[in-house]
# Entry
Amino acid sequence: MVCNNCNKEIKDYLLLCPHCGTANPTDSLKNVELLNDYANKLQNLIKSVGTAEHTAIAWDLTVDQYVKKMEQLQVIISQPEFSKNTGERLMKRIRGFVDRCKDPIFHIAFVGTIKAGKSTLINAMLGRDLASTSVTPETAVLTKFRKSKSDYVRISFYSAVEWKQLWASISSKADVFMQEYKALNADSEKDKWIGHETITKSISEDALENEIERWTSSKHLEHYFVKEVEIGLTDFNLPDQIVFVDTPGLDDAVQYRSDVTRAYIDRANAVFACVNSGQMTGPELSTLNRIFTNSGDKPEKVFVLGTQWDKMNHPVDDWKKQKNEWVKYLSMANCYGNTEIAQKNIINVAAYLANLCRNYDGNKKTMKELYAIAMKFDEYEDIIDIPSDVEGHLEELIEKSNVSEVMRRINLDIVPKYKDFLMNDIVANYTAVLNEIKSFFAEKREAQFEVLRDSTKSADEIRISFEKAKKELEDVSAYREQLEIAMSELKANTDERVNELCKALQEMTKTA
Ligand SMILES: Nc1nc2c(ncn2[C@@H]2O[C@H](COP(=O)(O)OP(=O)(O)OP(=O)(O)O)[C@@H](O)[C@H]2O)c(=O)[nH]1
Ligand SMILES: [Mg+2]
# Structure
């Protein structure tokens, strides 16, 4: 069939042209007024889609087209018919996709269970103690480190809407969260920070550590209201578009903090999963599975770090055994898929050792600590006799910590390919969101068809019962007709009989 207005080919069963929105009623259609009403709505929608606001993406034309398509789909999904329930979730996914394309940043995320040593490792790689660390759950906010012309800290806060959603999801069930929230008297500052505009502060080198701690540490009440902290550093030695992301630990007693990381993991472009070198537990394996699933056909972007390596009793031998086990699990098809990459990407690291050496100031306690670690390695047995001997071996111990191997892998395996990886991830994200939208509309259409089917079904039922009633009426009429015939026959017979009797009586009286 061809549309009356635009002459484009349309499916026979369509009453509204999907190209121009004109109504093409069939002869059988009775309610043309209602159809025209829908036609008007559709034409307005087509116009709005055509003039949808477009976030121009200058860095890549293909990505610009992806964003355009998503923003057009957003107009459709924001219609009242769709915006409720699932529609709202899809809108969020689309906004996430557009943001990702606007600011094409390559995220190298450090994730893992609480206290795995994520922040300590980031500090070792930065060569400064900036990310706050502690023996208790510490990192509470996504914290990004990136290259900049001057040092700064940028703090973005939850909007009122985001906070409302967050609060609804945590306040009723999170006992520990509520205890901490009350203990810090956080509610007293809620109104000050929720919806606060992003703060960007230039900061001197000395003040940086405290400033970061103020906004990211679970010890400070402000962290509840902070969505993200970004730190610009002049001495961050990676390309401008690469950021390190420190994350709250998984399996925190305060579920809300772990949820921040869970919601974020899929956004990461490369992941360094930090697992205590002494053991890999079930929950860690399942987190790794999710990370690998998300890495698609590029498992080489996932690194599994055996952290706190210096804590093992016999670091060299114990790690060898432990690594063999990990390689066995992670060579499976759903992880690295082969032993070679697994061997390469599973790396032991002792970041604390590197930081201890970097900050060495002749303090006796530090000396003893370093001595204890050095004594775990055979090669130092005959060289380091007393704690003060460590002083001559600080550079070697830094090298021993293996932090430089992690850095080397970033420089060799990520930096040269990060633009390709980034593009790959954007395409994968686009396809995933598009598929979600397709199944959303398929579900909606199916639901509409079901309504139609139901209404047809009841019309059929009405028709059947009408036919039945009609037949019953016909049967009753036929019966009545028969009855009438019988009655009239009876009446005729009776009349005849009465006549006969009368005649007989008359005859009798005559003869009497
Ligand atoms: N001996 C040793 N201790 C370490 C190492 N890495 C971290 N630690 C210690 O482990 C504790 C936790 O370290 P963090 O870096 O705060 O751990 P995290 O994973 O960032 O913790 P959350 O942010 O709370 O999830 C601290 O006391 C660190 O000093 C390491 O390589 N060796
Ligand atoms: Mg941390």
